[in-house]
Amino acid sequence: MIDPSSLVKVEEGLQSRKIFFDPEVYELELERIFGRCWLFLGHESQIPAPGDFMSAYMGEDPVLVVRQSDGGIKALLNTCSHRGNRACYADSGNAKGFTCNYHGWTYGPDGALIFVPLEKECYGDRLDKPALGLKQVPHVDSYKGLIFGNFDPEAPSLRHYLGEIAWYLDVILDATPAGTEFLGPPMKNRIKCNWKLPPENFAGDGYHVGWTHAGALKARASTSIVGIAPGNTEIDLSQGLQVTMNMGHGFGWGTDGKSGFSLYDDPRPAFEYLEKTRPRVIDRLGEWRGGKFYGSNLNANIFPNFSFLGCGINTFRVWLPKGPDELEVWIWVLVEKDMPQHLKDTIRTESPRLFGMAGIFEPDDAENFEAATHLSRGFQTRQRYVRTDMGIGTEARHPELPGIVSPGIIGETPQRGFYRFWHALMSAENWSELAAG
Amino acid sequence: MAEAAGAPVSHDVFHEIEQFLYREARCLDEERYRDWLAMLTDDIHYWMPLNENRFRRDRRPEIGETDVAIYNERRRDLEMRVARFESRLVWIEDPPNRTRHVITNIEANWIEPPAEAEVLSNFTAHRSRREIDSAILAGNRVDRMRIVDGRWKLCRRKIVLAQNVVLDKNLGVFL
After folding, report:
1. Virtual CA dihedral for B54, B56, B60, B64, nearest 10 degrees?
2. Hey, what long-range contacts does B126-132 have (CB within 8 A, 24 or more apart)?
3. pTM for the complete prediction?
4. Which end of chain B, C or N, has fewer beta carbons within 10 A?
5. A92 in a domain, yes or no?
């Protein structure tokens, strides 16, 4: 029997190393976290036309995300109702239907079972076709282009689940009326680490940037991202803040209005664009979001496993669990739809050059995550706790900003929020118990 | 001159090109990145596109140079990457990794005789790291090579990785 309170000591900011390793904990996560939370599926720009589809995963479950003829979006479990083969093997495309390779059962874009070879001859009239469609994910909804799905019929709405982070997300998704789009295709690779380690790092770990990535910071001659210098030789903690909230979402965000592009080879065209658009963004979103956050360096995670960096690096990724000690990451690049083409092209090449599988920053992290996972094979090692207790007591409500806020870009407030919600989900039988708690 | 555009290069030229590719692979395996940069032209385009599983009936244009790519580098970008290696601050490269490039299936045809050729090759790269980290990457390359000041140099490389999901934690290696 799993006792979540022995695994995560919420008030002390301690996590048992078992949660990064134990198969039983992982099984419960598939049920209570991936079975209940809103999970990121993709961007609406990837499937603009009826019949457009893309493959995605919710936890370990494969789904097909399909644009319907009425413009709506459905997510269908990508496995045949007959003998369980995968219904579609393409990563994306446009289809009038999905035909299983095993016996030819064919499903429409809405998942309905529309054709069974030799049905009359072999089943007579005994096959209940309406009951045998691809299983539909009960809730699919979008927030300003980002598509999410939820397996739990009792789950709160996406808007409720995003809660206070929606206000912040608008800086990225709604700075311009044209909205955003994903550039693809996604980059995919495997990391032999527990799925929680990268999301909590993206939620809050400003501390590692200057040290883990010292070589990359030096190569790009970046004297400062929000005050962090290569080798952590100096730090200006007055810049930026960390935020956590109810559903475990968290982020760290600068407030200087341009550090999101500070790692670029030549950030000047981006700075010009920011200065040109800023008055319009302030009109739209106000002084905090338009004046301070827009263009500033951002690291963020929407619980459980959808992470991104903005406002310039624009790498968006989902960390898909593949067992307790492995994950697969899918990485896209996001741009504002009405950005000048030259700036879109720069972001398209710079984003993966910094944060892609061959980027200069990305490879530094994975080894840290892998070792933190696999060393738990050691029985003695596994008895230990790791910590996210930096800055305990600094978090407070802010007079102007939603969420729980800690000052400065370095601290572990968002990570504690991540594990607080993890603990709540793992301890509760269902969403109503969670809401009551 | 007997050679024509599209025709295979002569035995002698083929030998030069083959030796160039082996020497280049050894530069990478021995982490002699400045020597490697010297084998590239100033207008080098070093490109590794992404793969996607698509049905054969899919009518979308092939993934091209205007899509997101794993590598899409000009000389300045490659020099920046070499500077990163040289910073001695890249902890994942220290202690050093062990890499072996195996280059095979070389074909070379003239684009513009006698100074520019298209060179096809296959590669297998084995990377061993730390205690038991081990990865094998395989694929093919479409190169363009040019004679500059009497020496062959690489001016364009397209690397096609024969994998959809890369089964390693990163691709921090030149191929």
Report:
1. 70
2. B126/B99, B126/B100, B126/B102, B127/B97, B127/B98, B127/B99, B127/B168, B127/B173, B128/B97, B128/B98, B128/B99, B129/B92, B129/B97, B129/B98, B130/B95
3. 0.97
4. N
5. yes
Host domain of residue A113: 39-141
A308-348: pLDDT as tens digits: 999 999 999 999 999 999 999 999 999 999 999 999 999 99
The alpha carbon dihedral of A303, A159, A51, B61 has a sign of negative
Q: In B, which residues are within 8 Å of A363 by CB distance? A: 92, 169-172
pLDDT tens for residues A134-192? 999 999 999 999 999 999 999 999 999 999 999 999 999 999 999 999 998 999 999 99
Q: Is B38 on the interface with A (CB under 8 A)?
A: no
- Please answer yes or no on whether A189 and B69 come within 8 Å at the CB atom: no
Segments of chain B scoring below 70 in pLDDT: 1-2
Q: Is A205 a catalytic residue?
A: yes
pLDDT category of residue A224 using cuts at 50, 70 and 90: low
Q: Are residues A183 and A127 in the same domain?
A: no
Tell me: do A100 and A227 sit in the same domain: no
